[in-house]
Specification:
heterodimer, A: alpha/beta, TIM Barrel, nine-stranded parallel beta sheet, 13 helices, B: alpha/beta, Rossmann fold, seven-stranded mixed beta sheet, 38% helix
């Protein structure tokens, strides 16, 4: 199973000191956090993508390429890549290039973006969000799988005889996740292609995450990619660790109370009860996190949000030490113990996808349709 | 078949004149439904008890507490609604509106709603028609013709009980008729839009449907 961290990339004043990091400091801080993740034995670092203040993360492949050059094993991902407002042609090029630079240590998570005004800046309309996600992603799959693409859709200028360069590393497109907090259409989309589904699992309660994951699992099976419990699921989570629960709460509370999304709202205690947020000892975080599999099923990737709400870099690095050295090794062992043999422990990686060979379903634009053809052929023969 | 009516009241004190008006309306509806040989049960939602849940919901990007989620379910599952608010600054109270804002936009489709309001003076009485009626019309509820406004002085008058009885008869009629005792036509009924609490995932089309026209 993979464990890692995902960052939103926000610049938020530290409420205890009033100090706001500069854009340069925040970028440097995220880099240090990513390098620390590898150092303490985590598997994944994922960066957000935003195109408006107070965020710095407008160019994920630039940042991930730099981190790739400084790391050996860390898997690099996104949380999320805006499949709505980015040109899918540019995504195909940028991430294939990054795949080459990183030796295949990348995957991507598709997301729509929920900031209305960003859409018109890129010539789009947030009301088309789902349609954009569907059309653009379908084109992206073709660009990574067909040597020459002819395309005419609703949203971008047509393509005639277009070849995306560089082609994916080893002719093998990166694995893709789809992230959505509340749109069942996106769970359906992930299931259709046999891609991974990631639930943010921070803002809403466990019962909601469970419904989204259940829908994805059922439809994954429906489209013939495997049994429902073999679908590739990722979950977010939010933790703050301390030697005692009281100490952890005392240190985290001012950051929680002033956080951009939920600050000045519910209490730390109420929000911890209503959502997966866990503020406490490593033992408490381990127990709560293991419980995620009770309602989401055995899953393949767990990402924690830890660098947000103005927390100083040094505090985040300490948190990573505890997470990597005390929490994740136990989670890894315990999740392995409970997972049945037929459920994959990890999401597909570049190595596993290359090993599966060029005839594997991953190389089809619409693998769900391959089964239809197979069924028809079998029918004709019998 | 027992109908269920939710009585939504936004009074702030205990006892409150808003809840008192809600009780009078419920009693009158109960009598009116009973006189038609049907049964009705009432469920009370005091918005004041949800004040912290609502503030948390609004400031957390929509995390509903279990209690708020249960109320959303309860309201969208009802056969009818009695909504009573005190008048604050020429409109329904802010707390009342927070609860309405926390409902799914499809929570009240076609639901019979009896609107009512209380205030210190009768000079606020147009709040029913200038604020409450458009609010529930927007939510595609069926707002009954008679709204009931009670100024403090009205609680001693027979005029109020007459209006309560008239409004109650309209609601009783609407919830009994909106049951199953009419014959459906042959054409599909475009008004039959289902009610949803917003707690569950919306039904999703098969992906082939979503991809249609977008596969290049």
């Amino acid at each position: 199973m993979q464990f890692g961290i995902f960052s939103v990339g926000d610049i938020t004043p530290d409420p205890t000191t009033g100090v706001t990091p500069s854009e340069g400091e925040r970028i440097e801080s995220m880099t240090r956090i990513a390098l620390k993740a590898e150092e303490v034995g985590l598997d994944v670092f994922a960066t957000g993508e935003h195109h408006n203040p107070p965020f710095t993360v407008s160019s994920p492949t630039t940042h991930l390429a730099y981190i790739a050059a400084k790391t050996e094993k860390l898997q690099l991902s996104t949380s999320t890549t805006l499949i709505t407002t980015n040109d899918p042609v540019k995504i195909a090029e940028d991430y294939a290039f990054l795949q080459h630079l990183s030796g295949g240590r990348i995957d991507l998570m598709m997301g729509r973006g929920n900031t209305g005004p960003v859409y018109p800046w890129f010539g789009k309309d947030i009301k088309d969000g789902i349609k954009l996600a569907i059309e653009n992603y379908h084109l992206l799959r073709k660009l990574w799988r067909e040597p020459v693409v002819n395309w005419q859709g609703q949203f971008r200028t047509p393509l005639q005889g277009y070849t995306s360069t560089p082609a994916p590393l080893d002719g093998t497109p990166p694995f893709v996740w789809h992230g959505s907090i509340r749109s069942p259409e996106i769970a359906e989309q992930a299931a259709y292609y046999g891609d991974g589904f990631f639930h943010n699992h921070i803002f809403w309660g466990p019962d909601h995450a469970a419904k989204m994951v259940r829908l994805y699992r059922q439809r994954f099976e429906h489209y013939g990619h495997g049994a429902a419990d073999q679908a590739i699921v990722g979950l977010g989570g939010q933790v703050f660790l301390g030697a005692t629960e009281a100490e952890a709460k005392k240190q985290f509370r001012p950051y929680f109370d002033n956080a951009p999304v939920y600050g000045h709202g519910p209490s730390l205690e109420d929000f911890s009860a209503a959502t997966p947020l866990t503020v406490g000892t490593p033992e408490q975080v381990i127990e709560r996190t293991l419980g995620f599999a009770d309602y989401a099923g055995d899953y393949q990737r767990q990402l924690f949000l830890i660098d947000h709400a103005g927390l100083p870099t040094e505090v985040v690095l300490e948190q990573l030490e505890i997470l990597g050295r005390e929490v994740v090794p136990v989670l890894r062992a315990e999740f392995d113990r409970r997972r049945p043999a037929h459920v994959p422990s990890d999401p597909p990686t570049h190595t596993s996808l290359v090993a599966a060979g060029p005839e594997a379903r991953h190389h089809l634009v619409e693998p769900a349709k391959a089964d239809d053809t197979a069924t028809v052929t079998e029918g004709a023969q019998s | 078949m027992t109908r269920t009516i939710v009585v939504l009241t936004a009074g702030l004190t205990v006892p409150s004149s808003t809840r008192l008006l809600g009780d009078q309306l419920a009693d009158a509806v109960s009598a009116a439904v009973g006189s038609r040989g049907e049964a009705v049960s009432f469920e009370y939602v005091e918005v004041r008890e949800l004040a912290q849940d609502l503030a948390g919901y609004m400031t957390s990007g929509g995390v509903a507490t279990p209690r708020l989620a249960a109320v959303r379910e309860q309201i969208s599952a009802a056969d009818g609604l009695i909504a009573v608010t005190p008048v604050f600054s020429a409109s329904y109270s802010g707390l009342f509106k927070m609860l309405i804002d926390a409902l799914d936009t499809d929570a009240l489709n076609g639901m019979p709603v009896l609107i009512a309001a209380t205030a210190g003076t009768a000079r606020h009485s147009l709040v029913l028609d200038h604020a409450m009626r458009p609010l529930f019309s927007y939510l595609r509820a069926v707002v009954l013709p008679t709204g009931v406004f009670a100024a403090t002085e009205d609680f001693g008058s027979t005029g109020l009980s007459d209006r309560v009885a008239r409004a109650a008869a309209e609601l009783a009629n609407a919830v009994v008729v909106s049951g199953s005792d009419h014959v459906a036509g042959f054409a599909p009924d475009p008004t039959a839009r289902r009610r949803t609490s917003g707690n569950d995932l919306a039904p999703v089309a098969d992906f082939a449907e979503l991809l249609r026209g977008h596969s290049g």
